[in-house]
Amino acid sequence: MYKNHEFWKFFDNEAAAKLALREKTFRKIFEHLDLVEGPITIVETGCARLADNWAGDGQSTVMFDKYISSRDQESVCYTVDINPTSVSECKKLVSPRIHITQDDSVHYLNVLARQFSQAEKCISFLYLDSFDLDKTYWYPSAIHHLKELTAVMRFIDAKTLVVVDDCPLNGDFIPGTGTQISFLAPASVGGKGRLVAEYAAAAGARILFSDYQAGWTGF
Ligand SMILES: C[S@@+](CC[C@H](N)C(=O)[O-])C[C@H]1O[C@@H](n2cnc3c(N)ncnc32)[C@H](O)[C@@H]1O
Fold this sequence. Notes:
By secondary structure, this protein is an alpha/beta fold. The protein has helices spanning 5-19, 23-34, 60-71, 84-93, 105-119, 139-152, 194-203; strands spanning 41-45, 76-81, 98-102, 125-128, 161-164, 169-175, 181-189, 206-210, 214-217. A seven-stranded mixed β-sheet has the order 3-2-1-4-5-9-8, sandwiched between helices. It has a two-stranded antiparallel ribbon with strand order 6-7.
């Protein structure tokens, strides 16, 4: 198990309180990564685009940078963003350990997958957070994230942690008595991860958490 004291000091003292509704699940992500042996490969879509936007977006790339830097010399993180402004802002926030590319994520992941194929690499942690979610018209974002998963599927194994951000749950419910509500069906993963979740369920992947972010292993 990796201790990563420097990272956890940073997480607990500087990040946790500001992460708001993502705190619990980011903690689970890094606890999971601490259990992975050897250097890790993180692949992210949608980079940190605004300094200090902890509660809004999550500052994922900043945390991934701190995490791999405190972990070892070999772990890597690749991130992609279609917006040149997001890319240039992100470059100001992270160290050269982060490989940042400006491209459409599905196209980029396909190119990256070819490189991984030659290097016989596998992804330890896939973090999908690109195409912004429109809560009233979630299809384009959810489809885009399913395409991203498809593009790198060959480089995901049973141990890979796959996480999608902005996945508020969907529930079919009616008012009950008083303040209670009656659910007609269990709540399900919504938002950006809705179609990834449908695929994960059909494929028999194991859901590790389902909160504002949803995470699976066992694809
Ligand atoms: C929610 S933000 C990412 C936030 C970041 N993960 C964080 O925690 O701070 C979404 C980003 O995805 C980018 N994006 C939108 N569509 C994209 C696409 N097709 N390919 C790559 N990036 C895309 C946007 O430019 C934006 O910077």
